[in-house]
Amino acid sequence: MIAIPTIDLQKGTCVKPPGSPLRAPVPDAPIGDVIGVARTWASNGFCRLQIIDRDAESGFGSNAGLIADVIAVIGSIDVVMGDVDR
Asked: Which of 1, 15, 27, 32 has the fewest other C-beta atoms within 10 Å?
């Protein structure tokens, strides 16, 4: 089995995914800097990361530039883009 961590992006920051048991009292509360979170996953031994651009999914913007920055900075980890039915 391969575990692939997912980062949900909204308005340029990582947010808790909808329905997450880690959900903060405030919906879509930021949980950290995307590059820092990606570095943490990589340093914990993960070789692949999925990024969900919630702004692009909803049609209210895009985090494409930030995702490109993650790919450039975290070169040692494969980045998979995708949407997830939650």
From this structure: 1
